[in-house]
Amino acid sequence: MKALSMAIVGFMVLAVSFSCIAASPYVGTWQCVEYTRGGQSIPTMQAQGKLLLNEDGTYLQAISTGIEEKGIYTIEGETIKLLQHDKVKMQGVIAGDTITLEFKPTLTKIVYQR
User: Fold this and answer.
1) Checking DSSP bridges between strand 59-68 and strand 46-53, what pairing results, if any?
2) CA–CA separation, 90 vs 9, rounded Å?
3) Which of 90, 91, 88, 61 is nearest to 77 (CA)?
4) Whether the Cβ atoms of residue 44 and residue 67 lie closer than 8 Å to each other
5) CA distances to 6, 37, 43 from 98, in Å
6) Helix runs in the chain, H state only
7) d(Cα 55, Cα 4) in Å, to the nearest integer?
8) With 50 as the cut, is the pLDDT of residue 10 above it?
9) Which residue from 18, 78, 25, 26 is spatially nearest to 48, judged by alpha carbons?
């Protein structure tokens, strides 16, 4: 009987956890596919970061976790201003440079119903 009670409590805690996840913004990561400075593409640019979207797909923020160009140029913790996005590819501006990002979702929204 005690094991059954523990299982029910555990299930309820899990259900509440799923509800919290469902209420949070859509979270994912992005990777740079093109970086342009002064109209010229910089093919050696490596960039990645995290992205938060509202549930309806509107932009919240894209935060870089490191951008380096042959060790000369590094930005960390900068917010990228997104100009347009479709949840797959996005274009934005960071430190005056144009950046095209590819979105990679890491969390699927879970909806719990009784």
Assistant:
1) antiparallel
2) 43
3) 61
4) no
5) 54, 7, 13
6) 2-23
7) 36
8) no
9) 78
- How many residues are given for the chain? 114
Rounded to two decimals, the pTM is 0.48
**What letter does residue 4 receive in the DSSP assignment?**
H
Spacing of C-alpha 6 from chain mean position: 36
Query: 101: which strand partners?
Result: 32, 90
Q: In the block, which residue shows the tokens 């109209």?
A: 39
Is residue 54 within 8 A of residue 26, CB to CB? The reply is yes
Q: What is the pLDDT of residues 71-100, one digit of tens each?
A: 444 555 666 676 766 667 777 777 777 877
Strands (E) across the chain are located at 26-37, 40-41, 46-53, 59-68, 74-75, 79-85, 89-94, 97-105
Task: Find, among 31, 28, 27, the residue nearest to 67 by Cα.
Answer: 31
Identify whether the C-beta of residue 69 lies closer than 8 Å to the C-beta of residue 42: yes
